[in-house]
Specification:
0% of the residues lie in helices and 55% in strands. By secondary structure, it is mainly β. The strands form five sheets. Strands 9, 10, 11, 12 and 13 form a five-stranded antiparallel beta sheet that branches. A hairpin with a 4-residue loop joins strand 7 and strand 8. The protein is globular, with a radius of gyration of 18 Å.
Length: 223
Amino acid sequence: MVGSVNGLTCLAMEDYDLVMWNPSIRKYKKLPDSRPRLKKLTYDFHSYGFGYDEFHDDYKVVGIFTCGSLDQVEFKIFSLKSDSWTSVIGCLSGVLLNVLGKFVNGKLHWATMAPGANRCMFGNIISFDLADEKWENVELPCYGGDEIALFWLGLLGSDLSIICDRRGTHVDVWVMKRSIGLQNLGQRCLSSSILMIKWIIPVFHPFSCQMKVKFWLYLDQLS
C-alpha cells in the first residue's frame, strides 16, 4: 500500500502498476503507466508517495525513479484531476531510505543518506509540497554529536517521526510538531538502550504514541 487519505487508498501492484481504490463504494481506478522515459529502460529503484492537495482539491502520487548512480533520476507526479503523469524538477543527493513517502500536512517526506566527510554518512529529509509542487529540505534534529548509523521515517498520529539507530547502542525517536514547522524536528519522544546482534539490522516502525509516555514499537528482523 502506497498510502491512504480520506478513505481513498493507493496500491502498488507489480512493477509500475498503481491503483486507486475506494473500499467504501467498492470502486477502483488503474493509473496510467508511470514508467519513466529516460535513457535506460529498467530502473534499479523506484519509490512512490500518495497524498491530498487540499488547495487544488486533488489527489496526487509522486514517483522517484533511479537507475545506477544518482545522475539518472526522474521525478514524476500524477494528478487524479488531470488523469496524467507529468515530470517535475527535483534533486536527489543521497540514497532513499524509505520506499514510500510519508504524507504529513500536505507534504510527502523521504529520508535519504549520502556519504559525508571522514567517511561518515550524512542524513537528510526531503519533502515535496503537493500544492506548489516544490521540494524542500527538512533539517534533522541535533543528536548531540553522536553519529547515527541509520534512521527511518514514520508517523505518530498526524505527526512525522524519525527513528534513529545510534550505532546499535540505543534508539531515539523524534517527533516533528506542526507548530514548529520544517526548521526543527521538535522534541525527542523516546530514547532507549537496545541489545543487537551485530549482523542483524533491526527495522523499527512506530505503532502508537499516547501522551508521550506510552510507546509501542514492533520489530522486523532482517537477516
